[in-house]
Amino acid sequence: MKLCMIGAGYVGLVSGTCFADIGNQVYCVDNDVSKINKLNLGISPIYEPGLNELIKKNYLAKRLIFTTDLNKAVNSSDIIFICVGTPTKKGSLQVDLSYVYKSVKEIISVSKSKKIIVTKSTVPVGTGDEIEKIIKKKKKKNFEVISNPEFLREGDAIRDFKFPDRIVIGSNNKKIFKKMKTLYNTLISKGAKFFTTSRRGAELIKYASNAFLATKITFINEISNLCEKTGVNVEDISLGIGSDNRIGSRFLRAGPAYGGSCFPKDTKGLVSIADKNKIDLSIVKSVIKSNQNR
User: What is the mean pLDDT of the segment spanning 49-53?
Assistant: First the structure.
């Protein structure tokens, strides 16, 4: 298939390179001229084990194209993935969606044929609805808007893309599922579960997943404090409770507070979504506070 990744940052670059490596033609478009020039020289702006090699391999095979030309990238592709940043707004818990909406407006302004717009970026529930409003306001009809959240861990992103536990596709048009299943068929054949839901469902799955994992980290960190006071080895506790299949051992290693680019902003983002809907996510709020204290 012919794909376009809007944003050559962590998500866009890793996903685009991996999509190319499984046989698709992929345009990675970014407005950062310096970044695109470096990528065309085989220099990755991020470090991820194995990424440089995959970039060079697929660039030489002409399956991976880096450009600042949005018009060409969009009109040479069937499916457009939005992979831009969704940071936390300064001084609040809310998610900054300005980069997402800017990308949507740019896509519909240059597109000359029917496209599927996919939010790969982590976005709050209802973002797809807002994107549709932007499209309708511009009196455009040639677009389908779906959600396909990413689940990539820094350091293991290539493996996570190629051997995922599940692929989540959210759409209000069930006809789209077939096309997306075809796109991901190589990964599904290796054992990945193809999970379909509503667009809002897919948007919330990503936030709920990250908040739950952050909760596991925070829980074992608090238990480690108790272990220190009672003379117990926290690793024994982790192994003991992690051996329960209902719980699992992953994300039960005591250590520093959780960090990275996702858990801090996504736990806050989920609380912001809940507050907007007048729901008190007391557990997630406690996780955020405990993590800040640690």
Answer: 94
Per-residue pLDDT, 260: 87
CA-to-CA distance for 167 and 149, rounded, in angstroms? Answer: 8
Question: For position 238, what pLDDT does the model report?
Answer: 97
What single string gives the DSSP state of each residue in 21-57?
A: HTT-EEEEE-S-HHHHHHHHTT--SS--TTHHHHHHH
The residue from 4, 28, 83, 262 that is catalytic is 262
Contact criterion met (CB below 8 Å) for 205 and 266: no
Q: Which burial class, exposed, middle or buried, applies to 195 when counting CB atoms under 10 A from its CB (0-12, 13-18, 19+)?
A: middle
pTM: 0.92
Q: Under a CB-based contact definition with an 8 Å cutoff, are residues 136 and 1 in contact?
A: no
Closest to 122 in 3D by CA, of 170, 59, 165, 182: 170
pLDDT at 138 over 90: no
**Cα Rg, the chain, nearest whole Å:** 20
pLDDT for res 142? 85
Known catalytic residue at 262: yes
Axis crossing angle, helix 51-60 with helix 10-21, rounded to the nearest 10:
50
Predicted confidence at residue 217, as pLDDT, reads 96
State the chain's mean pLDDT as an integer.
95
Res. 58: pLDDT tops 90: yes
Instruction: Measure CA of the first residue to CA of the last residue in the chain; give whole Å.
Output: 46
